[in-house]
Each structure stands twice: as structure tokens, then as C-alpha cells.
Design brief:
eight-stranded mixed sheet; single chain; alpha/beta; about 230 residues; 8 helices; globular; Rossmann fold
Length: about 230
């Protein structure tokens, strides 16, 4: 399986705090409106669409897409995170179909079943990101959209995403990221093309530590999002 057991154990240990907006997952809560806006804008809206969220964790993005009217299936390999995600549905009163499986396994089971596929903050945590992207191509319908977000690999990204976020500002637990697994936009673009998806665009995401404000822009030097479309 395309799973890093150390990464899985790391996030499973923190699973109980997924929905605590002041916990280690605060950055995910803070950027979620931006991710949702990006996905909605570039998929012509989510209402009524079949959506798959790969690497859903505790379901922060999954639930927000369901609240927009999407029929959401969400997958992860952390049983602990999925337990928290399912439990939170009782509080949110939305419907999400959570499943413990890999993207590759679901691609064999449900090819071309989804209008939108999202894979956010996940590619830098698996051994073979290209395999995930190929599975996304299989899972999305012709003309459907696939969304990714990850972290660039360069000295600035190391300074901001690891030294800054994990050690200085302590926005994330130390060891959350492995710099060697960061992904340059050129590498992501190559994998997207090799998966027979058409790249539609890249967008950067920045953070101001003084105002504690995140925003989308054209700077893809650290955190960035990308979206692609499966040809008809």
C-alpha cells in the first residue's frame, strides 16, 4: 500500500484533537475557508456533485464541502482520525461517507464516479505521490476536476514551513513535515501530465505571522494549490 506507517502513526496520535480549532490543527481550520473557496470557484460550484476527499483526516474539508450541498465520500488510512470524523457528524448534522482505504484501492472499485476529487495537504506524506495522482485520474469523471495542495521544496519553504511554522511560531508540532518530501510545482505538473490530466492553474497561499492571516495569491514559493481537469 502507498502508506507511510510513521506518518500514519503520527497523525493517528493527534486524532482526538482534529476538531479543536486551537490545537495542532488550527492551521487547517484557518485555511479551510480558502481551500473551500478555491475548490468551489474552479469546479463551478459543489452543490449536487459527487465529491471525493482523499486523505480526509478528521473531516474538516469533507464536512465543509457537504455543507455546500455535495455528496461527499472521504477516505483515509487512519482509523483513529476516521472515528473522530464519524463522531463529529453527530454534532454537525451533515452526511459524509467515510471509508478506510487508499485512493488506489478505491480507483479499482469506483472508476470515473466523481465530479470533483480533492487531495489536500496529503501528497507530501505518502511514499509515491504520482500513484495518488494517477488514482485521481481514474476516480474523476471525464471533464471532472481534481484539486491538490502541497508545499514547495526550496530554501524559503524550509525556512517558512519547517523552521518558522514548527520551531519558531509553533503552528505545527515539530516533525510534522519532512523537507525531502516537499514537492516542486514542476514535479507536480509532470505527475499531473503523466496521469493524463490537464493542468488548469496554480495558486499560492501565504501567512502573515503578525496578523495571523492567510490569503491566496500568486506566490507559489511555499504553500500552493493546483487544479487539473480530466479530458472528455
Amino acid at each position: 500500500m502507498n502508506v507511510d506507517q510513521q506518518e500514519l502513526a503520527k497523525f493517528s496520535t493527534l486524532a482526538a484533537r482534529w476538531w479543536d480549532a486551537n490545537s495542532e490543527f488550527k492551521p487547517l481550520h484557518d485555511i479551510n475557508p480558502l481551500r473551500l473557496q478555491f475548490i468551489e470557484t474552479h469546479s463551478d460550484g459543489l452543490a449536487g456533485k459527487q465529491v471525493l476527499d482523499i486523505g480526509c483526516g478528521g473531516g474538516i474539508l469533507s464536512e465543509s464541502m457537504a455543507k455546500k450541498g455535495a455528496e461527499v465520500t472521504a477516505i483515509d488510512m487512519s482509523e483513529a482520525a476516521l472515528s473522530v470524523a464519524r463522531l463529529h457528524l453527530y454534532e454537525s448534522q451533515v452526511q459524509v461517507n467515510y471509508r478506510a482505504m487508499t485512493a488506489e484501492a478505491l480507483a479499482l472499485e469506483q472508476p470515473a464516479q466523481y465530479d470533483v476529487v480533492t487531495c489536500m495537504e496529503m501528497l507530501e506524506h505518502v511514499p509515491d505521490p504520482a500513484s495518488i495522482i494517477q488514482a485521481c485520474h481514474t476516480l474523476v469523471k471525464p471533464n471532472g476536476y481534481v484539486f491538490f495542495s502541497t508545499i514547495n521544496r526550496n530554501p524559503k519553504a524550509y525556512l517558512f514551513a519547517i523552521l518558522g511554522a514548527e520551531y519558531i511560531l509553533q503552528l505545527l508540532p515539530k516533525g510534522t513535515h519532512d523537507y525531502a518530501k516537499f514537492i516542486r510545482p514542476s514535479e507536480l505538473a509532470t505527475w499531473i501530465r503523466e496521469a493524463d490530466l490537464n493542468i488548469q492553474g496554480f495558486t499560492g497561499m501565504s501567512y502573515n505571522p503578525l496578523t495571523k492571516h492567510y490569503w491566496l495569491n500568486n506566490d507559489i514559493s511555499v504553500n500552493y494549490l493546483a487544479y487539473a481537469q480530466r479530458p472528455a
